Amino acid sequence: MIPAPHIALDQWRALIAVVEAGGYAQAAEVLHKSQSAVTYAVQKIESLLGVKAFEIQGRKAVLTPTGQMLYRRALALVGEAGDLEQAARKLSAGWEAEIGLAVEILFPPGLLLDCLARFGAEAPRTRLEVIESVMGGTGEALLSGHADIAVTPHVPPGFLGRPLMRMRLAAVAHPDHPLHQLGRTLGEKDLRAHRHLMVRETGSRRTSRSYTVEVEQRWTFSSMATSIAAACAGHGFAWYPEVLIGTELAAGKLRVLPLGGAEERFVEMNLVLADPDCAGPGVLRLADILTRAVADAPLWVGLQSDITG
After folding, report:
1. Phi, then psi, of 52 in degrees rounded to 5
2. Global confidence as pTM
3. N or C terminus: fewer CB in 10 A for the chain?
């Protein structure tokens, strides 16, 4: 194990700069230091550890095999120090200047806006960046560091989530859709003969197949609102959260498909903090507001009769 505590962070930063800038002179310009200061910092590391980090080839400093290992170690140490400094600044300055919130589009937008309004009243100077995501996109927002907090049905590896709410989805189509005209309980074969309406996953890989059936005809949209509008216009069938289509069901624009019990699907939504140990007061308060709002909201009442009726 390299005795990193004996080496100052500025010395590690100098080593990184020499590698990434391509030489001592270039690193000096990047760090706004003299070339002799950068050279001394790297030589100090080599002296303390008894190794050679660079060898000069022409006019360029090239990492030795040992230097490559030191470079990786330097990146880790400087990165960890940066995270600690950022967390300390958040705590010393009070509420965060900006918070990233990734929310699965299945989450009721009205409830989300109520939570944002409450948070905004308490922390008017904190900017919120709301990332509306679908499936894998929420996890990517956490992994990339764009989201400090997320509401998602899929907790990515390396993160901890706590259950927030259980959402019920229903298979629906316009009352005049051919599936409703069959006048009987439907099966998967019936669905395969018709168009399935989807919302595109926002993750870059787009590998998830949640909430889908294997059909030949499919329309994929970028927004839930457009997908619901397509269903109301009779262009296909889909599974939607009941809390998002209550108005359309009540108005007779959509009707639940008789799938013999398979018309219902459930999604468990989780609340995930990107870094619980270093979460600032704003992130913690927003998480609390979301949790309390869901607990108080009557999300499980009112639409069961539409499925069983």
Report:
1. -115, 115
2. 0.60
3. N
